[in-house]
Amino acid sequence: MSIKKLQDAELASMLKSSIRLKSRDGVEAPWLNLNDEDMEWWRDAKLGFFVHWGLYSILGRGEWAMFNEKIPADEYAKLAGRFNPQKWNPEQWASLAQEAGMRYSVMVTRHHDGFALWDSPGSYGRFDSMHAAAKRDFVKDYTEAFRKAGLRIGLYYSPMDWRFPGYFKPKELADNAALMKEQAYEQIRELTTRYGTIDILWYDGSWLAHSGTDADAAWFWEPVKLNETVRSSQPKCVINPRSGWIGDFQCDEGPHEITGNIIPIDWEKCFTIAYHWSYDPKERVMPLEDIIKIMIDCFVRGGNVLLNVAPDPDGEIPASQVERLKQIGEFMKKNGEAIYGTRSGPLEPVDHIYGMTRKGNHLYLHVQNMPAFDGMVLPALPQKIVRCQLLDGSAVPFEQNEQGISIKVPKEKWEPLDTVIKLVVEAGG
Ligand code: GLC
To answer: What's this model's pTM, rounded to 2 decimal places?
Structure first.
């Protein structure tokens, strides 16, 4: 009976942030925001590695299994006795992320089920990996391995915890809800003081009783106070908006398409290449074309992309996902010049046909539909184009006048997903 309703909560969780992207939502506290200079590396990095892995991976039915299936907390807690990954190899994850062209990563350190993947004295009931069969601090291993590989380190943390009845009735069960809040403050302190420099803090789930927005719950969490403590130990950490404070960038979630004009704020789209966020043995993987299409749609509109993988309970990323990451890596290698370190524009994208990125006096057209692009006249640009070429260096004929620009890419050079045309324009023009 209630299964449908419960699944609605999971769906609502997914939808809330896409709505948010259109209008920035959250408590303002400008003194907490990073300046342009400190945001630069994040804007340049473009692509990140996201990973959902925890006790729910053993069940293999999604990270919402505890809630959706109404598994009592003490029953669910028994999974900790079985959590003992035999193939935990964060160095391998890091090298795979690198091979995929990812420059940063965000690991789920604690999801809504409350199980912490580190040695966490602040955890209510010591529900952590040090007290699970594994007896390991996975956050420590992860941060060390990824940092060593040269990737920026991000931590996902869910302030809410289904184990607390007070989460569902924060006013009626205020004492219990206060314990949950205390846990969140303590665990955020642990995560931001024990593992060196944390480049990204990625909150999720500050809404209360699964309704309203994260910002609506700011009366409870006091996100400004929480993030002031974060800033005292991690002054340059890039923080997402899901604590209820507006954060340093906005989130868009799920694999729906991104269309329309450039979005002139810092934003990031996250989605899973595995359909579920966490391991499912029946898993299919998203087609490469669909992933790349969304990636380009984001890059040409000023967004970053955080791609999620779902390792199995042993810590191994399934072969189908590995294969996809490698294909994404090939794409990034081939087209990276037109992606990393770029900003969107100056021309506005035309949905499903082309969009633009730029770096210095290089403008890059990302053409997603060559048959539709061929013969189009692009809007005029103020700068004079001095050269037009493909990324392999081959010259492309073009014409520029006050009416606009026409470009004729030889048919044999058309690419199915992204034909990148580089326009070298006069400096300072
Ligand atoms: C959705 C899911 C949640 C997941 C999150 C990642 O909100 O419900 O489980 O962690 O997406 O952004």
So the answer is: 0.96
